Amino acid sequence: MTEHPDVVSVERFIPAPAERIFALIADPSQHHAFDGSGTVREAKDVGSEPLQLGSKFGMHMKLGFPYSMVNTVVEYEPNRRIAWQTRPPGVFAKLFGGRIWRYELEPVPGDESRTTVTETFDWSTAKSTQYVEILGWPKRNEANLHATLERLAAYFEHRADL
After folding, report:
1. How does DSSP classify residue 50?
2. How far apart are CA 162 and CA 75, in angstroms?
3. What is the C-alpha to C-alpha distance for residues 100 and 4, in angstroms, rounded to an integer?
């Protein structure tokens, strides 16, 4: 876990090369396959081009009730790092959102078929950091990060096409 007060990170070894993991994470239409929060339903407004710095994509979500988010890729290093900042659509974007979800991939030295993946929930750029904390998102999201990386590992564990 990180030391920054507005950031929670977890890491895990994933039995796959960084390139394969990155391809999955950088494909919004596949986020539901490894989401550990149970909130991701399906991508919307996803272009045919691969994500890159500045790309925007939408996501249908559900946490008690359905809602949508609009995401902008704010960090991008192919096969190593991708992060997007999330906001609700429309007028609510000025009041809420701004949180960043980041994935960092580091091949295991001497074994390029395994990768250390670090997932981070960063609310330091949120419109209201107090709102995030009052709702208990940091603690809940830390558990979700662990669950996501568990699902990501399971996704690759029994794949013969690596």
Report:
1. P
2. 26
3. 14
